[in-house]
Amino acid sequence: MSHARSEYEDFKRIAPDAYDLVLALGQVAAKAGLDKQLLELVKLRASQINGCAFCVQHHILLSERIGVPVDKLHLVAVWREAPIFSARERAALGWAEALTLLPDGFGDEVYAEVQREFSETELMYLTSAIASINVWNRFGAAFRWTPAKRPVAAHAATS
Boundaries of each Carboxymuconolactone decarboxylase-like domain copy (predicted)? Predict the structure, then answer.
């Protein structure tokens, strides 16, 4: 078992200007109107690929709070084999994987698929969200940030 080298809160404290910039980049896609549930699936998938336990847990918990279906959360790692994802979600997940796995490159078919599902503006903002989560993943994985604990439900705490 690995231990944290630093924690998420340390990033805010030690480099608040860098933290604020990464945070702002991560928020622009939702502010531009892209679906928050779709963005969370994309962020979760990139975080899985990058092995960032902190970000995986953060985006699972956030996804649950905003109503992403549990089945999608369970199946996002194998989205190609799961018919539960829409064409738009598939295009976004394929784009997220392509941009996260850049050393492998990607063909024109991935770009063509995402271009069919997203406007030019949406694609720029989707790309900014993917770039942002990859930056967060680099911090979380490098410093082995401790994943958040799942909040205890009020009724579970009293039983």
Answer: 16-98
Q: What's the whole-model pTM score?
A: 0.91
Q: Report the candidate in 43, 48, 2 with the shortest Cα–Cα distance to residue 128.
A: 43
Q: What is the pLDDT of residue 36?
A: 97
Residue 29 banded pLDDT, cuts 50, 70, 90: very high
Residue whose pair of structure tokens reads 């604020």 in the numeric block: 20
User: What domains can be seen in the chain, in order of their start residue?
Assistant: 8-143 (1.20.1290.10)
DSSP state of 80: G
Alpha-carbon torsion (40, 61, 135, 137), positive or negative:
negative
Q: Among all chains, which residue has been given the structure tokens 């024109």? A: 108
**90 or 108, higher pLDDT:** 90
